[in-house]
Amino acid sequence: MSRTDHIAEITPEVLLKAYACGIFPMAETADDPGLFWIEPERRGIIPLDAFHVPSRLARTVRSNRFEVRVDTDFEGIINGCAAPQEGRDKTWINARIRSLYGQLFRRGQCHTVESWRDGKLVGGLYGVRLGVPRRHYQRLLEQAVHQTADFYFWPADRTVDGGVALQSVSQTS
């Protein structure tokens, strides 16, 4: 982890280069204007060509209890990811993080996978695509049963067809 007391200039281009090197920015809190770099010793990598979906999870996904949408509500996803949730009362998603990922989203380099139920956003994640063959999912919003499993299955199932060979996640647990 690298922490500076000044606000370094992080542009969308710098952010993409950092992701390509395996590092990403965080803030101490939502109110902290500064960012620092996280350089994990270990990264979670999911090879998508060998991704196995357990039969029980496959049944849950096929049940169509949720409608999965892509790139339709970036603001809803980032707001949901930044909101307090059970077991987590504060967030590292500050205004600069929102701005940087919002810029990448508008440029088509950050994507959302969203779960909707009865017309309401109930879960999702956002991530940065680093070209082929890698996609990095940064954050997860969970508000409904089986959301986590659905969101790791859905991108894996769809991105192999889109030429993405592996998926990176920020942490291994």
Write the layout of secondary structure elements.
Elements: H1 12-20, E1 24-26, E2 36-38, E3 44-47, H2 55-62, E4 67-70, H3 74-82, H4 95-106, E5 110-117, E6 120-129, E7 134-142, H5 147-161, E8 166-169
Parallel strand pairs: 7-8
Antiparallel strand pairs: 1-2, 3-8, 4-5, 5-6, 6-7
Helix pairs in contact: 2-5
Kindly estimate the percentage of residues that lie in beta strands according to DSSP. Answer: 25-35%
SSE order, one letter for each helix or strand: HEEEHEHHEEEHE
- What does the overall shape look like? globular
Query: How many strands in all?
Result: 8
Count of the separate structural domains: 1
- How is the main sheet built? 6 strands, mixed
Question: Regions with pLDDT < 50 over 5+ consecutive residues?
Answer: 142-150
Kindly identify the CATH topology. Answer: Aminopeptidase
What class do helices, strands and sheet pairing give?
A: alpha+beta
CATH architecture identity? 3-Layer(aba) Sandwich
- The number of helical segments is 5
Would you identify the CATH H-level superfamily? Leucyl/phenylalanyl-tRNA-protein transferase, C-terminal domain
- Arithmetic mean of pLDDT: 75
Radius of gyration: 16 Å
Q: What is the CATH level 1 assignment?
A: Alpha Beta
Distance between the termini: 18 Å
